[in-house]
């Protein structure tokens, strides 16, 4: 594979101590049928075999660019750094413990190309790879989706009862238009900030799901949320320098309000989206009150 001067597609892989599943992940990326891409790895100062594995793969495939950070700056900063290092018109984040079927990239590129700029994220159906049992189970939650307007998509994300597209946030690992993603605040240093990012993207365009189960989410004991079971631990995983208490719902409330304010929407859409965020906040008012007290040191 020749070097790509101006790759159309970039895959960014942020990693910290990923030796357990990294090789499987890299093999699944490098065997994509759509093979014209760059793979940028941002290593958050790992102290296991991550660097050795990455350098070995990079030595065999010039589509890979390996960058090692001087210190562990946390998940949020590393996700954002790897995006900044990438150059493609289309961009995908890849977790070191997930895997792709060979046609994942081909099908997502086709979806974005066919849809035009009104669609800013393409993603596929998901299967759960359960490490203990070695089983692959389709995750077939039905997401109500497809509204033609920003406020319609926001309402489906924030107000739907039960499972919504924000329950697992899997589209954050979809293929995104770089221009749209660059206009967001990316991954912010607080719990569940991927929910805020997906809201930001939904205010910029529609999402397109490819129905095939081509994305495999590995479930194991060292998943980020499994290994960090408390809100405070998750906050420190996003930002190791965080000293404040975790205020999950308050941070989401601020994030959603900022998302509406930052988006370039017509005034009627802004008003409608603000009403939707207020309805979401009212439903969670007790949790928000608890977060406000916790943030003030009163709980």
Describe this structure in words.
The protein is α/β, with parallel strands linked by helices. It has two domains: 9-227, Spore Coat Polysaccharide Biosynthesis Protein SpsA, Chain A (Alpha-Beta Complex), CATH 3.90.550.10; 231-295, no CATH class. The protein has twelve helices and nine strands. Strands 1, 2, 3, 4, 5, 6, 7, 8 and 9 form a nine-stranded mixed β-sheet that branches. Helix 5 (150-158) runs parallel beside helix 11 (267-283). The model has no long low-confidence stretch (mean pLDDT 93).
CATH domain class name of the largest domain: Alpha Beta
What is the name of the CATH superfamily of the largest domain? Answer: Spore Coat Polysaccharide Biosynthesis Protein SpsA, Chain A
How many helical stretches? 12
Order of helices and strands: EHEHEHEEHEEHEHHEHHHHH
The CATH topology name of the largest domain reads Spore Coat Polysaccharide Biosynthesis Protein SpsA, Chain A
What would the principal axes of the Cα set say about the shape?
globular
Total domains? 2
Report the biggest beta sheet as strand number plus sense, adding barrel if it closes: 9 strands, mixed
Give the name of the CATH architecture of the largest domain: Alpha-Beta Complex
Name the helicity range: 40-55%
Mean pLDDT: 93
Structural class: alpha/beta
- Strand segment tally: 9
Q: State the low-pLDDT regions, or none.
A: none
């Amino acid at each position: 594979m020749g070097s790509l001067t101006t790759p159309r597609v970039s895959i960014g892989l942020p990693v910290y101590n990923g030796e357990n599943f990294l090789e499987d992940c890299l093999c699944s990326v490098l065997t994509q049928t759509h093979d014209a891409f760059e793979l940028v790895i941002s290593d958050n100062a790992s102290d296991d075999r991550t660097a050795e594995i990455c350098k070995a793969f990079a030595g065999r495939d010039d589509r890979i660019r390996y960058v090692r950070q001087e210190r562990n700056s946390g998940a949020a900063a590393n996700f954002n750094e790897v995006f900044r290092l990438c150059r493609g018109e289309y961009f995908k984040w890849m977790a070191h413990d997930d895997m792709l079927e060979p046609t994942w990239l081909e099908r997502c590129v086709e979806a974005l190309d066919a849809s035009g700029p009104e669609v800013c994220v393409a993603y596929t159906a998901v299967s759960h790879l359960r490490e203990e049992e070695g089983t692959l189970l389709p995750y077939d939650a039905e997401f109500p989706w497809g509204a033609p307007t920003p406020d319609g998509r926001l309402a489906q994300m924030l107000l739907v009862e039960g499972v919504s597209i924000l329950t697992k946030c899997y589209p954050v690992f979809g293929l995104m238009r770089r221009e749209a993603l660059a206009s967001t605040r990316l991954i912010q240093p607080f719990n569940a900030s991927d929910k805020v990012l997906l809201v930001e993207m939904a205010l910029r365009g529609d999402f397109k799901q490819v129905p095939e189960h081509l994305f495999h989410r590995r479930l194991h004991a060292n998943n980020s949320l499994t290994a960090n079971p408390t809100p405070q631990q998750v906050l420190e995983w996003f930002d190791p320098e965080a000293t404040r208490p975790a205020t999950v719902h308050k941070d989401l409330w601020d994030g959603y309000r900022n998302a509406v304010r930052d988006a370039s929407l017509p005034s009627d859409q802004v008003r409608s989206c603000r009403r939707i965020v207020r309805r979401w906040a009212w439903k969670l008012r007790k949790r928000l009150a608890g977060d406000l007290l916790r943030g003030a040191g009163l709980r």
